[in-house]
Amino acid sequence: MSELRRDYFENHFTLAPITSIAPRRRDVCPFCPGHEDLLPPAEMVFTREEGGSIRKMEESEDERVKDWDIKVVRCLSPLVSEKPSQPRETRIPFRKVDPVVGAHYVIIPTRRHDGRLSSMGIDEVALMLLSIQEFGKKMYQRKGVNYVLIYYEEDLKGDQHPLVHMLGLSELPPALTGEIQAHRRTMRESGACPLCVIAEVERSGPRELVSNNQFISVFPWAPSGEFEAWIMPFKHRARFFRLTHTSLNRLAEILTPTLAAMAKAAGSFYMIFYTNSLKRSSMNIHWSIRLRDGGSGFEGIMLSYGIRIYKERPEDHAKKIARHARRAMAELLVEKHRRHGV
Ligand SMILES: [Zn+2]
Ligand SMILES: [Zn+2]
Predict the structure, then answer these.
(1) Which residues contact 11 (CB under 8 A, 6 or more apart)?
(2) How many Å lie between the centroid of ligand 2 and the Cα of residue 37?
(3) pTM
(4) What ranges make up the beta strands (E) of 242-283?
(5) Residue 281 Cα, ligand 2 centroid: separation in angstroms?
(6) pLDDT band per the 50, 70, 90 thresholds, residue 6
(7) CA of 204 to the centre of ligand 2 (A)
(8) Are 172 and 166 in contact (CB under 8 A)?
(9) By CB neighbour count within 10 A (0-12 exposed, 13-18 middle, 19+ buried), where does 286 fall?
(10) Please, which residues have CB less than 5 A from ligand 2, an ion?
(11) Domains and CATH numbers, the chain
């Protein structure tokens, strides 16, 4: 059982526990073509027809699509569970809400086991962006999903099929809440959206990576890592999910070379989307994609969304540490009694 918990005092989230999402059978990758039956039926399948048009389908238990280009499936070892734990804990100090439940899906963006996003062409990246957009909108239709988190990590040394993770959460990730507050503060003080200003000021400047007439990719003025890239629209847009097909293609023209450059310069990196919720109309930050070096093993979710992930539940760790503490206590008491000659 995996669940998200808020801490007692602040707005930190903890996720516990995480089980490996690696293939169950080491010799067979369930995400590779030919092993469709090892996964649940795909809830969305994209195939590119002759002539370039895109077909969107759904799989059923009996009917699997063989010639898929992109598939979206429920994650077999989810970071967040769809149901609250049973039995429910009722005595959680200061907590008014239950642990956060949600949904965890993975987009398989390519048939190739070694097909990293950083080595894809513009058309492939555009289709991947379309699948994120289409499936994200579908996730927002679910009751209880108020935020869809998007996460991809690329480890050049790793041997896992590339996956884009989509987590549907009932609450906003804490880092997004921080970004919204910072955005409001800047709006109050200067009257302008910070990312509108950054996109315009960095255009053709020393930190611009690439740009076209709609999007720019920049290295931020004060990066949070050795290598970082922000991709954003020049015009103030609040929701990635509302982009038109034309804009998705223009975005792919900028994202594709930025992904390639990050892999070349940083080696391993991760990618997240800071975009507003489709269910919170008051959220109005300028949406962006952020790529940063490092982040393997879901570390990027902690670094960029503020959600900590642990391998075991606090209760399980507590059991272990309590056993040590009680043994130590018994030994201390025996020693104390011995000294007092009891
Ligand atoms: Zn594979
Ligand atoms: Zn803006």
Answers:
(1) 174, 177, 306
(2) 45
(3) 0.89
(4) 269-274
(5) 16
(6) confident
(7) 18
(8) no
(9) buried
(10) 193, 195-196, 236, 286
(11) 3-311 (3.30.428.10)
